[in-house]
Amino acid sequence: MILQKSNKAIFHKGDCVVFRRMKCNTQPSRRAQHVQASEHGDDYYYFVEKCWVVADVREDGKLLLKTRSGKSHLIDADDPKLRPANFWDRIRYRDRFSQLKIAGL
User: Fold this and answer.
1) Beta strand 16-25 with 10-11: parallel, antiparallel or unpaired?
2) Are residues 32 and 50 in contact, defined by beta-carbon separation less than 8 angstroms?
3) Domain of 63, in residue numbers
4) Tally of CB atoms within 10 A around 67
5) What does the pLDDT read at residue 65?
6) pLDDT > 90: what percent of the chain?
7) Segment 54-74, tens digit of pLDDT
8) What is the DSSP string of 56-78?
């Protein structure tokens, strides 16, 4: 099954995708982007880009995504934090995507 997003992105089983997740911690990770301190400066809010693969495209408009560690996430296909991996993502995150392919996901 093929699912088309409203912005014309099409997802197939086996496609690599990038999901942008917001995190909060006392110390941002090295992959942190758009880091902002909390109001009192105790924590930091930031985004990290997760590289996942489409394991299944469901009829209800959701995608079953698999991580490198084998975890599963059920995400709406029209979620604005989700996008197909483009050419530059595949170069930038080649190690992460290759780990997904090696794991057979």
Assistant:
1) unpaired
2) no
3) 3-102
4) 19
5) 92
6) 15
7) 889 998 889 999 888 888 999
8) EE-TTSEEEEE-TTS-EEEEETT
| pTM over the 0.85 mark | no
Q: Indicate if the pLDDT at residue 98 is higher than 90.
A: no
Residue 81 in contact with residue 9, Cβ under 8 Å? no
Please provide the DSSP assignment of 17-42 as one string: EEEEEEEEESS--TT-EEEEE-TTSS
Write out the two tokens for 79: 């979620």
CA distance 9 to 57: 13
Please name the amino acid found at residue 15.
D
Residue-level pLDDT at 64: 93
Looking at per-residue pLDDT, the higher value among 95 and 64 belongs to: 64
| Parallel/antiparallel/unpaired status of strands 16-25 and 3-4 | unpaired
Please tell me the total count of domains within the chain. 1
As a whole number of angstroms, the longest Cα–Cα distance in the chain is 48
- H/E element holding 82? strand 82-84
